[in-house]
Design goal:
The structure holds two protein chains of two kinds.
Chain A: H1 7-28, H2 30-55, E1 61-64, E2 75-78, H3 80-107, H4 113-132, H5 136-155, H6 160-191, H7 196-209, H8 211-228, H9 237-244, H10 247-272, H11 275-280, H12 283-303, H13 308-329, H14 332-363, H15 374-377, H16 379-393, H17 399-413, H18 417-442, H19 457-475, H20 478-488
Antiparallel strand pairs in A: 1-2
Chain B: H1 3-27, H2 32-51, H3 54-58, E1 63-71, E2 74-80, H4 82-105, H5 112-131, H6 135-153, H7 159-190, H8 206-222, H9 232-238, H10 241-266, H11 269-275, H12 277-298, H13 302-323, H14 326-357, H15 368-371, H16 373-387, H17 393-407, H18 411-437, H19 451-454, H20 465-480, H21 488-501
Antiparallel strand pairs in B: 1-2
Helix pairs in contact in B: 1-2, 1-5, 2-4, 2-5, 4-5, 4-10, 4-14, 4-20, 5-6, 5-10, 6-7, 6-10, 7-8, 7-9, 8-10, 9-10, 9-13, 10-13, 10-14, 12-13, 12-18, 13-14, 13-18, 14-16, 14-17, 14-20, 14-21, 16-18, 16-20, 17-18
Classes of the chains: A mainly alpha, B mainly alpha.
Chain lengths: ~500, ~500
């Protein structure tokens, strides 16, 4: 592997530095504080783009932190899939941050906004690092950072339910990381390594000698990442946390944070576990069934909600389960669908949460039944909501169709039509709970009575960008899919 | 005409209406007349451009061209053959007349700035369906048209309309998912979904049957096939009349068109015959015909009656398709045309009646023929065609369908056609006979005194000339394309049947 320069770590360092500066600047020059974080996010996004051009679709680069070679030092790896995830993380968080600049003034006390910027930068830094790291213990540390900052951007809003939801999230997530640490210890016991690549080659030998240790570790990992990513029976913390948080945080949490754990699990399955382990015990099968149940139950719960953001949060549970189904089917086409869905859902759900945020910002209405006729007074947010809903249902021209297409092809390729039916049924359920909102907003004869504040420009721009992203991901997807095809060949 | 020109023209035909949609929305702010004019102009241009493809089609030209690759091995492509040409020409023609009709009809309505752009957009999507070169593009345009048509259906925004619209939307989504399922299975079996490769599936398999049933659900839902017709009688009557005419006259046919493509380009005809899958469609079609006609009898709202009649008429097309021989396919194709002319006339005439008098109940239409002679005359002409009176076009399609059924040795189907014709007569004649030969209610007393004068008393209260011209042109088509020499539509249908059964050549 050739050297990657210092770009991989630059992303993380940039964000961390801005995280330290932002609250300091906020005391004197409020405007500058946001600008610094914005610049750092832009910088990291550009760096990620540079990394993409460097690594291309097939080669991979390695970066040794502090020049300590693996297995002792921390290694960051730049391979196609990680670069893809890195681009999604930095790009989407940049986009949400622009929205946050407009929205936060309304949702938070003025004196904590600087802290929010700081937390946001740390959160993005930890997520970028999670995608790049090639070291299990490093992953554990980053997961803790990610969990704590994610919790903090929920509880920063000074409300009773935010604190309650944040606490619930903290407990569940601490349990998850605890399980993960235990699993890492077990793996370390057996192999003596923490580096992904070293473990992978060692585990296939150790599998015959210490099967129980390894099985236990695998089970712990599933529980750990299942909790963190809100996989079906472990999802209970998500709806409260995502619904109570300030809207930019909701967009961030639903759009990126839960996906980062799904991606980490994917990495563990294919970069840490040897193929022989996946063939011995039905890990994928477990994930597949949990995913299928999550898809159904998430949608069904979402139908029962009366609060707009709660509904979106439950919908996230069903959508994250799609990504897990992609991993569960263990097949290149399905994985393509799952990985593509990471991006599509990041675009879609962020757009939806942003438009919900815009609705709450300008009218204060949260109840779904109170949204009649709101399309006439807030056309842009509701139009964005419509496009987002279309993508959730999987209508042609939106990204949702593409990921469903590949997931469905994967189910057919493995001959499991049952799961194809689950995918289709969930589309129908999505239609049943998203469409009435859209129809009610635009078509009902009611007049919207509440007072309406004008949505700030930064929010309008990001909402428009969201619509465009959702549509682009549905039309110009060919290059990305070819990129996946090449990248996934290394797994099989 | 060389191939490149044709391809460019096809792309223009599909994109022009879609591009004009935002233009229309923008123009609405300045002038209503400009908007109406532009809408008609767009429809007219589309129609003329479509007609200009005729020389190419006459020479037996077929085009399959990829436009844009959306995923590896999956593209948006266009396909032109005689079947797509026929339907595209038909739909743009009816669209043009409905757009002309709308100018006066919609003048009193609210939200025209939404109606016209949607009307024109659905035209583009509909042409897209007919020109789609693979199942995926077909699916995309099909969904696009179906979902946007929702706005036409709920135009009145009454509670009834919203309810019917919601039903429509849910059924559309279910149909769309079934189609998605079908397309993806075909892609899995054949590795392609292009219509240009001849036949994709030629061996019987379980998965193939599942795909076939999915297509039946997806397209049959649109075509109002039993038992998926439930949305239709609610949705068509609540729409504004020109939209109902398009929904019944053209948009239903897109479902039938999809099934044509599935029958001839996806599965091989031999496979369908040997495995007997076409019998599934035949059974459903027979039920659809009889059920539609029977229920139409019980409806007293004129537009609901017409909607149920559409269900039964679409049954004819599906029946013809399921018989799978030359005469039956000719009849089915020809009936697509016939029904488009007849049902559009009926809906537009019914619309004119409602617009002028507010009468929707068929029992109150006594004496209307004296009030609105042209409208009622056209209505009667189309109704007679529906019943199948020679020399009108409805007769010719039933005749050909019956011939096809006899060729296949299935006289039972002829009986079904006859029963349905009888039922048609039973529910159309009670509208038209009282309209001409009875006095309007409440007027009889006032005229008792002067019997002599009464004979010639025609108090004409007609719809506007624009509306009448649209109705009259459509009604004329039922005669022109009936039992006449040089019936160009009929010869097109014959060529289409020959093309489809001959596996791609005339």
């Amino acid at each position: 592997m050739e050297s990657a320069g210092h770009q991989p770590v630059l992303i993380i360092v940039l964000l961390l530095i801005s995280a330290f500066i932002a609250p300091l600047l906020y005391r004197r020059w409020r405007f500058l504080s946001g600008a610094v974080v914005l610049a750092a996010l832009t910088g990291s996004f550009i760096t990620a783009l540079l990394l993409l051009s460097k690594s291309g679709a097939s080669s991979s680069l390695s970066y040794h932190l502090g020049n300590w070679p693996p297995p002792w030092g921390i290694e960051l790896i730049i391979d196609p899939l990680r670069v893809y995830m890195l681009l999604v993380v930095t790009g989407v968080s940049l986009w949400i941050f622009i929205y946050a600049l407009g929205d936060l003034k309304h949702e938070l006390h003025n004196d904590v906004i600087g802290w929010y910027y700081s937390l946001y930068a740390v959160l993005v830094a930890s997520m970028s690092a999670i995608t790049l790291t090639n070291d299990l213990f490093n992953l554990f540390v980053l997961m803790e950072i990610c969990a704590i900052t994610a919790c903090a951007i929920i509880t920063i809003k000074d409300q009773r339910e935010c604190l309650e939801a944040g606490f619930k999230y903290l407990i569940m997530s601490a349990m998850g990381t605890g399980c993960f640490l235990l699993g890492v210890a077990m793996i370390y016991m057996v192999t003596g390594y923490l580096n992904y690549s070293f473990i992978q080659s060692e585990l296939s030998l150790a599998l015959t000698d210490y099967p129980l240790n390894i099985f236990t570790a695998a089970a712990l990992f599933i529980v750990a990442f299942g909790t963190k990513a809100a996989l079906f029976p472990l999802h209970v913390w998500l709806p409260d946390a995502h619904a109570a948080a300030p809207s930019p945080s909701s967009a961030m949490l639903s759009g990126l944070v839960i996906k980062i754990y799904a991606f980490a699990l994917f990495m563990i399955f294919y970069r840490v576990f040897p193929r022989s382990l996946l063939d011995t015990i039905p890990l994928n099968e477990i994930i597949l069934w949990l995913g299928a149940m999550g898809v159904m139950f998430g949608s069904i719960y979402a139908m029962l909600q009366t609060d707009l953001k709660k509904m979106l949060a439950y919908s996230s549970i069903s959508q994250i389960a799609f990504i897990f189904m992609g991993i569960g089917l263990d097949q290149p086409l399905a994985l393509t669908g799952g990985l593509y869905h990471i991006m599509v859902h990041a675009f879609t759900k962020s757009t939806l949460f942003m438009s919900a945020g815009a609705i709450i910002y300008s009218t204060g209405v949260r109840r779904i039944s109170d949204l009649g006729g709101i399309g006439k007074v807030l056309p842009l947010p509701l139009f964005a909501f419509t496009i987002g809903s279309a993508s959730m249902i999987g209508l042609p021209g939106t990204g949702g169709l593409i990921s469903k297409w590949y997931l469905a092809l994967g189910t057919l390729e493995t001959g499991r039509i049952l799961f194809l039916l689950v995918i289709l049924a969930s589309s129908l359920l999505n239609a049943i709970y998203y469409m009435p909102i859209v129809i009610n907003a635009f078509m009902s004869g009611e007049e919207f009575k509440e007072k309406v504040k004008i949505v700030p420009l930064s929010m309008q721009v990001t909402l428009a960008a969201g619509m465009i992203l959702v549509v682009i991901s549905g039309i110009f997807s060919r290059q990305v899919i070819i990129f996946f095809e090449q990248a996934l060949t290394s797994l099989y | 005409m060389d191939k490149a020109t044709v391809i460019i023209m096809m792309v223009v035909i599909v994109t022009l209406p879609i591009i004009m949609t935002p233009v229309l929305m923008y123009v609405c702010r300045f002038s209503d007349r400009l908007r109406n004019g532009l809408a008609v102009l767009t429809a007219a241009t589309t129609f003329i451009l479509t007609l200009m493809l005729y020389p190419f089609i006459r020479d037996g030209g077929v085009i399959q061209q990829s436009i844009f690759e959306i995923l590896p091995d999956l593209e948006i492509s266009i396909h032109l053959d005689i079947l797509s040409f026929s339907l595209a020409a038909l739909s743009s023609f009816v669209w043009l007349l409905c757009a002309i009709y709308s100018i006066d009809y919609m003048a009193k309505e609210h939200a025209c700035s939404r109606y016209y752009p949607v009307l024109i957009f659905t035209l583009g999507a509909c042409q897209g369906i007919f020109f789609a070169g693979d199942l995926f593009s077909l699916f995309v345009f099909f969904e696009l048209m179906s979902i946007i048509a929702y706005i036409l259906i709920i135009h009145e925004q009454t509670e009834e309309a919203l309810k019917a619209g919601y039903k429509y939307l849910v059924m559309t989504i279910i149909g769309g998912l079934a189609l998605f399922f079908g397309v993806i299975i075909i892609f899995e079996i054949g590795g392609t979904v292009s219509l240009g490769v001849g036949v994709i599936v030629s061996e019987s398999s379980m998965l193939g049957l599942v795909a076939f049933i999915c297509f039946l659900i997806g397209f049959g839902m649109k075509a109002g096939m039993f038992p998926l017709h439930v949305w239709l009688p609610d949705a068509h009557p609540v729409a504004p009349s020109p939209a109902s005419a398009l929904l019944s006259g053209i948009m239903l046919k897109t479902g039938a068109y999809g099934l044509f493509r599935v029958f001839f380009h996806v599965f091989s005809v031999d496979l369908l015959r040997s495995s007997g899958w076409n019998v599934i469609l035949a059974v459903l079609a027979v039920i659809t015909i009889l059920l539609g006609s029977a229920v139409a009898l019980t409806q007293s709202d004129i537009k609901r009656r017409l909607a149920y009649s559409s269900i039964s008429q679409l049954g004819y097309i599906l029946l013809g398709l399921s018989i799978l021989n030359f005469n039956a396919i000719t009849g089915a194709t020809f009936h697509i045309f016939s029904h488009a002319f007849m049902k559009s006339t009926l809906f537009l005439a019914a619309g004119a009646i409602i617009w002028k008098t507010g009468i929707r109940n068929v029992n109150e239409m006594k004496g209307l023929g004296r009030l609105m002679p042209v409208t009622m005359g056209c209505f009667s002409l189309a109704a007679l065609a529906m019943i199948g009176i020679p020399p009108l076009n409805g007769f010719l399609s039933k005749w050909t369908l019956a011939l096809g059924a006899l060729d296949a040795g299935l006289p039972g189907y002829v009986l079904v056609l006859l029963i349905s014709s009888l039922l048609n007569a039973l529910y159309y004649l009670p509208i038209i006979i009282p309209a001409f030969f009875e006095h309007p209610e409440g007027e009889e007393n006032s005229h008792e005194g002067d019997d002599e004068k009464h004979e010639v008393q025609f108090k004409i209260k007609e719809a506007t000339p624009l509306m009448l011209s649209a109705i009259a042109i459509l009604a004329l088509c039922t005669i022109i394309f009936g039992l006449t020499p040089n019936n160009i539509v009929f010869s097109l249908s014959r060529l289409t049947a020959q093309y489809l059964l001959g596996g791609g050549s005339f």
